[in-house]
């Protein structure tokens, strides 16, 4: 259940105000924040509340304290976590270069129980299916399975996404194609995270033992009430960390 801003602790609201200002360039990377009295005045808050929020921002890597200079904005602040819809290859990059995507399979297939449930795909329909391997320097690969809703559903709900899938380069994820085609279109997503084992086939693809522990992330993206994309992402032990941002 979503928590309204009014229910959040004041320090969290203040934290987010400053963090949003940093991400929007009000306080650009490398800049020094105004002094505490001035910043408290600009934000209309007390200095003790501001000091607590600044301490949290420092702990979370957005700010650094330099002796004789003050609080400065870090050049590479942490990326927003999994609550922000973005392609997995960017999310797992940790703010560096996106993971490399290697297409393994680009085909169509009939719905499985998973896709029939999450994409509301009728029996006998054809779904685009993309299987990809994501790799980064020194990082264990991530296996990604993505399905798009039936073509007629996409043409009615999000024709730009349908066109993007037809025109996408091989080394692009389906979610990257969707987000790139959705400027001005509101997307919502629901994800689940669970523990699993790689199994024989996925173990071969990731060059790991079949009994290697892994994290399974399922994801469904909607335009309005219409599901347009469903995915399963398998992150084996040793894969890049998946940042999950939480607040109360």
User: What is the average per-residue confidence, as pLDDT, rounded to a whole number?
Assistant: 86
Describe the strand arrangement of the main beta sheet, using strand numbers.
Answer: 3-4-5-8-7-6
Going by helix content, strand content and strand pairing, the class is: alpha+beta
Count of DSSP E strands? 8
In whole angstroms, the N-to-C terminal distance is 11 Å
Put simply, the count of helices is 9
Low-confidence stretches: 1-7
H/E element string?
Answer: HHHEEHEHEEHHHEHEE
Largest sheet: 6 strands, antiparallel
Sheet-strand content, in percent, reads: 25-35%
Shape: elongated
- Radius of gyration (Å): 21 Å
Helix share of residues?
25-40%
Question: Can you describe what's shown?
Answer:
This protein has 248 residues and is an alpha+beta fold. It is 31% helix and 29% strand. It contains nine helices and eight strands. The protein has helices at residues 10-23, 36-43, 47-59, 88-91, 113-119, 151-157, 159-167, 174-180, 199-206; strands at 63-66, 70-73, 100-109, 127-136, 139-148, 187-197, 213-223, 226-236. A six-stranded antiparallel β-sheet has the order 3-4-5-8-7-6, with helices on both faces. Strands 1-2 form a two-stranded antiparallel ribbon. Helix 1 (10-23) crosses helix 3 (47-59) and helix 7 crosses helix 8 (174-180). The longest helix is centred in the N-terminal third of the chain and has 14 residues, at 10-23. The protein is elongated.
């Amino acid at each position: 259940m979503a928590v309204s801003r009014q229910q959040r602790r004041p320090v969290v609201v203040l934290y987010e105000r400053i963090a949003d200002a940093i991400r929007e360039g009000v306080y650009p990377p490398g800049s020094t924040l105004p002094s505490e009295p001035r910043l408290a005045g600009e934000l209309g808050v007390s200095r003790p509340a501001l000091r607590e929020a600044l301490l949290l921002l420092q702990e979370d890597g957005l700010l650094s304290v330099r002796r004789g200079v003050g609080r400065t904005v870090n050049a590479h602040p942490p990326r927003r976590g999994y609550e922000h819809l973005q392609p997995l290859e960017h999310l797992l990059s940790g703010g560096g270069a996106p993971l490399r995507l290697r297409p393994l399979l680009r085909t169509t297939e009939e719905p499985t129980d998973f896709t029939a449930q999450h994409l509301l795909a009728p029996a006998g329909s054809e779904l685009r299916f993309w299987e990809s391997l994501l790799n980064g320097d020194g990082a264990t690969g991530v296996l990604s399975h993505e399905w798009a809703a039936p073509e007629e559903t996409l043409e009615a709900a999000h024709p730009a996404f349908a066109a993007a899938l037809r025109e996408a380069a091989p080394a692009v994820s389906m979610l990257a194609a969707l987000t790139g085609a959705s400027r001005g279109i509101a997307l919502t997503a629901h994800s689940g995270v669970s523990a699993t084992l790689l199994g024989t086939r996925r173990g071969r693809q990731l060059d790991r033992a079949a009994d290697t522990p892994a994290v399974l992330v399922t994801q469904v993206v909607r335009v309005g009430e219409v599901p347009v994309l469903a995915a399963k992402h398998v992150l084996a032990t040793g894969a890049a960390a998946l940042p999950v941002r939480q607040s109360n």
